[in-house]
Fold this sequence. Notes:
It is built from four helices and six strands; from the N terminus they run H-H-H-E-E-H-E-E-E-E. It has helices at 2-27, 32-45, 51-54, 74-83, and strands at residues 55-65, 68-72, 92-100, 104-112, 116-127, 130-142. Strands 2-1-6-5-4-3 form a six-stranded mixed beta sheet.
Amino acid sequence: MKILKSIMLGLALLAVCNIAGATNKSVDKPTKLEVLDVFINAAAHGKIAGLENVLDNDLEFNMKRGERTITVNKTQALDFYKASENIEQACKCSSSTIEDTDWYTIMKVEMKYDTYTRINVVTIKDTASGWKITKVDTSVVNNA
């Protein structure tokens, strides 16, 4: 009977340890708000720490330039942000939610400069490795 109690106690302890371990592993996955903060820090403040981890491998980054749209992938987007690392943008940054569901969120990030506003529409999806930016559509409008 004593052996049976020891085995049951050991199994219970093992189960608790596994549950605690599973809980700690999920902490490593960023939330959608943490992902958005990383994006804003990179775009507005030149702080690119963690940016590579929050961009999905299949990222589609579209930049509207006049009548043309330039589309870049994750590697090209990272190169762009690395080139402007530690450069503080002279803009006022704000964000708002366009759509929010359990598996994706679309955010609008506005970077308002003196003469124009850069608008980023950022799609964040819940992937197997946590929340990731899967698409960014960027356009520029003149301030009136």
